[in-house]
Amino acid sequence: MLLSGCRSVHSLRSLESLRDGDLLFHVVEGSNAITAVTHGIQALAIDHVAIYYTGEDGTPQVVQAIYDGVVTTPLDTLLSKPGYYVAGRVSGADPSVSVRQALRHVGKPYDFVFSPTDSEVYCSELVLLSYVDREGHSLFAPTGMTFRDETGDIPAYWQSFYGQRNLSVPEGAPGSNPGELSRRPEVKIKYDLRDFAKRRYQRGPSY
């Protein structure tokens, strides 16, 4: 079990349990600048989200916005990173259309300043831009971004980060973050991928 008091979250045993359009949330073991000012479901330190899908050749892939831009990445590469992932299923989504829309953003640059008004894209923004219901309506609305820590202050890191770019910290501006996304009522966390990743690397990937 992963989340205390949540009996519906299990250790992933097989890729067959994942579905196209599932969201993979990265949990850091410790803290960083993002998790210091945001929090995931049941206070998990979530700092990234990727979109799972099955590639044309049948291999498990994700589409994600990282520093290199919006890219597709083999699942094994994703799971080899430090930390671990939990998988969330999105209720009310049209997964095939949502994944196709996410893939249309491949090649766009990463949005380092988390602005909703430019052509660049950050990780949770990719989800907001892509996910629709079966009538084609956007599933996730932006929320007010926060850069304040548990004391209510904006950490020096973010003040310096935006100050070096001659920008104000966009506190309260419309946007998203992966931790907040994991707490949306449309997202149900179903699987913990830690043991799955360990077993997979011990014997090598098998599709």
Overview of this protein structure:
- With 207 residues, this protein is of the alpha+beta class.
- Helix content is 22%, strand content 22%.
- It contains six helices and nine strands.
- The longest helix has 10 residues, at 194-203.
- The radius of gyration is 17 Å and the shape is globular.
- The protein starts with 9 loop residues before the first strand and ends with a helix.
Spell the H/E element sequence.
Answer: EEEEEHEHHEHEHEH
Main sheet: which strands, in order across? 1-9-6-2-3-4-5
Rg from alpha-carbon coordinates: 17 Å
Poorly predicted regions are: none
Largest sheet: 7 strands, mixed
- The N- to C-terminal Cα distance equals 25 Å
What would you call the structural class?
alpha+beta
Helix content: 10-25%
Oligomer: single chain
Shape, principal axes of CA atoms: globular
Q: What's the number of extended β-strand segments?
A: 9
